[in-house]
Amino acid sequence: MFVRTLVGCACAACFACTSLAAEDQNIPRPKAIIYFYADDLGYGDTGCYGATKIPTPHIDKLAEQGVRFTNAHSTTSVCTPSRYAVMTGEYPWRRKGVHILPGDAPLIVPTADRRMTLPSMLKKAGYKTCAVGKWHLGLGNGEIDWNKPISPNPRDVGFDESYIMAATADRVPCVYIRNGIVENLDPDDPIEISYKKKIPGVPTGREHPEALRYSCNNQHMDTIINGISRIGFMKGGKSALWKDCDLADDLTNEAIAFIEKNKETPFFLYFATNDIHTPRDPHGRFLGKSQCGIRGDAVVQLDDCLGRIVQALEKAGIKNDTLIIFSSDNGPVVIDGYYDGALKDLNGHRPSGPWKGGKYSLDEGGTRVPFIVSWPGHTADGTTSDALISQMDLAASLAALTRQTYPDGVFPDSQNLMSTLLGQKKQGRKNLVEQALSETRLAMVSRDYKYIPSSSDNRAKKKSSDAILYNLKNDPGETDNIAKKYPELVQKIHEEFLHELGTK
Fold it and tell me: pTM score, two decimals?
């Protein structure tokens, strides 16, 4: 078995390992690493990326104290696949069944005893590892009894501790799960969950629309919790239910408690917020704080979460020893199941900034997301980088930073871009495959170009006559297909696309 190390690498996907060892041996390991993962936050939703009607002082300050990337991507324009890629360093379309999961889906991330993951690698490096917030990568093996310890869970993936939502706020169960056990559950009021059929005696939005705080589409018309109907059916567990307006505070308090408890110990915190995913229900203290209605107010709440975490690091005396990476799991969506007024309240705000499209789409706004890296004394503070990077690259990059080796086949699509992430280099990836909601809808960013091989079958080995090529530098709105003007360039990029897919 070939083992990748810091002094060499047998595959192109890890070319940067050698350069880090040769040039950056004096970079120390950070005391703490925090990956702050927002949900559905668009490229244009924060001040440092151009928003003028949503105040985000803490995110903007993080950018001032670090490197802000303008060509950073999630692998996919939806959540579960993007999160899978972060954990595994692998394109999610390589594995069948990695798509948006129901709340009772089995775990899709390999357990640490089968294959190294990002958290298990950092745990091996001596970091205490913790996952807080949205999980949405499955739990158990397919049949979950929510009233007993659930296994496998994030601890089996490599996290020492976890305090999670099983899936999303719009899916049942609406409870917190600590280390595989539902928090605050009354054994006399057991939880029953179904995504296949209605549970008798459970009020639904479909039957009682008058009980809803705001209306929603048919998909979200199942069990009503806190005046909001969800996807899926849930009965029982009343003492364990979260309050939507407290989600941000609950999760941030948990993250802060972990920081305080481990301030003397190296740690990795995976902090995955619910904001600004639907149903949007920001705490009352944030209502009206933006000029963009409830969606903008949820962004302000998200910004506050970051500010509180940075404040906790300062209080613990470890801010200067902490590497913070801030990003979002995919591009923005304004209406996503709930009619909360977000569209009419946009007030001229452009969630995707200059890019076309957003969540679910193959357009650039679907995967081009905010991405900020800050580490006092080590990042080129206040700089902007247009290097092409992916969240998937965190695995190989952090492995290099923490001097970890890993077997061939682990983190197969992740590239070590640690020097780029710190702002010390301008070079990023050459190519990156993007994925839409469909597992077969793929495109590729290559240098300044966006290539969509076919309008139907993206994985065809033969170049299609309806291939699309955009020059993103000149045409961020993806309006001018120049494929027929440059057939030789299309052929060259198509060959690179096949190489990235591993089919050539």
Answer: 0.95
By the 10 Å C-beta count (0-12 exposed, 13-18 middle, 19+ buried), 196 is classed as exposed
Rounded to whole angstroms, the Cα distance separating 41 from 63 reads 16
Rounded Cα distance, 254 and 112, in Å: 24
The amino acid occupying position 285 is: R
Q: Summarize pLDDT for 74-118 with one digit per residue, the tens.
A: 999 999 999 999 999 999 999 999 999 999 999 999 999 999 999
Q: Beta-strand (E) ranges in 53-100? A: 67-69, 72-73
Helix axes 394-401, 79-88, angle to 10 degrees: 30
Q: Radius of gyration (Cα) for the chain, nearest Å?
A: 22
Helix (H, G, I), strand (E, B) or coil at 43: coil
Q: Report the alpha-carbon distance of residue 369 to residue 365 in Å, rounded.
A: 7
Strand pairing report for 72-73 and 67-69:
unpaired
Q: How far apart are CA 475 and CA 459, in angstroms?
A: 25
Note the pLDDT tens digit of each residue in 30-66: 999 999 999 999 999 999 999 999 999 999 999 999 9
Residues contacting 469, CB < 8 A, separation 6+: 449, 450, 451, 452, 481, 482, 483, 486, 489, 490, 493
Q: How far apart are CA 402 and CA 322, in angstroms?
A: 13
